[in-house]
Amino acid sequence: MNTFNNLINGEWIAGNSQSPNHNPSNLADIVGHYTQADAAQLDLAVQAAQAAFPAWRNGSIQARSDALDKIGSEILARKEELGTLLAREEGKTQPEGMGEVTRAGQIFKFFAGECLRLAGETLPSVRPNIGVEITREPVGVVGLITPWNFPIAIPAWKIAPALAFGNCVVLKPADLVPGSAWALAEIISRSGIPAGVFNLVMGPGRVTGEALVNHPGVDAISFTGSVGVGRRIAQTCAQNLKKVQLEMGGKNPQVILDDADLAQAVELSVQSCFYATGQRCTASSRLIVTDRIYPEFIAAMQRRMAAIQVGDACQAGIDIGPVVSQAQLEQDLSYVEIGQAEGASLLIGGERLSRATDGYFMAPALFVDSTPAMRINREEIFGPVASVIRVKDYEQALAVANDTPFGLSAGIATTSLKYATHFKRHAQAGMVMVNLPTAGVDYHVPFGGRKGSSYGPREQGRYAAEFYTMVKTAYTLA
Predict the structure, then answer these.
(1) What is the CATH number of the domain that holds 54?
(2) Which of 181, 201, 385, 391 has the most crowded Cβ, counting Cβ within 10 A?
């Protein structure tokens, strides 16, 4: 069995221990054994990034652009191979894995261009004979902590802008899915980027993650993960005056109005709630449906969900793969029990499934007759479990949609320009979808939410510069 090591200062270095990476579709299949870094190795990675920073920040922006473009090209050329790896370790279907890999390649190519487009301003001073220049400079050493649900795309959308704007990077991927991050690191290691500019340290969050957040040589932290961990990181960064960017939870609403196209509403709801096994922060788990369309919508959802194929993520014809881990499966199943105990009616699904291989398979679950106060409508489940809330009209639907401590994504299905326009303006979310699934965003525009979902500057697109650079104002006497 292959062993995959950490990348520190351009060298592949073994750790004190290893962890097996299991395929959630087939627990007998081990993707590989991945080195676990300790705090001492994390310190070496940060030191390497600090040493590499001066030359990298002052080096050729064309060299940066060429390296990022090369990374993106190789990712795209290997999308089938890397998509299969992703499906094996995370449980997305192979087409979904290939789509994620494609997005990662596109992100690197986008930021290859951003290397050459970082603009500033020249303004006159209010005082005579003085000029003012406003420029952006890199932050320094950036620690990146990424989650398990997008094991190559999220590392890509953090690494690419960090490098494009002249920062050095220490990446700590989720311990559950190190394979895709390792494959990406291996591509980066051959791109022409100097040793120490990019470093990979794998291991559990309580060891490598905490060491990264607390290290005095790290100037900024970008984190995607749970709300609880994010809040602790925010507190630590505030105490140490580190720049911080957090993407956390979601409890995203999908509103279905009486005038919606029923077939379209059903399909976008199924995609929002259950594709990628519901393991997306932008997934919808609250379907808010108005009175007249409610019975027809429920019947159509039941028919559509009965046709969903659940199975091995690498098998052709599968719509939904397994849940990522035993712990996540147990959490999902516990929420099915909670929903029933609270009085919601389980319309379909919610049970563990047996397949040809031993894996974490679960039938997507849909509750009806639920109320906004139920835990299944308040807490992020992060699995293939959704519920329907019946409301009388658009005004009540909007109020229920906004009644959440989260605010990442919100959707509406309607043929009314009036209601679509009002919803875009008044939905308390960072991203709004009209007649589209709540999950599924472009790589060249801002990503992020409000309330408990996000903290700090937006990710992706040109807005990534807000986090990965600092503004400097310089005055010159003529």
Answers:
(1) 3.40.605.10
(2) 201
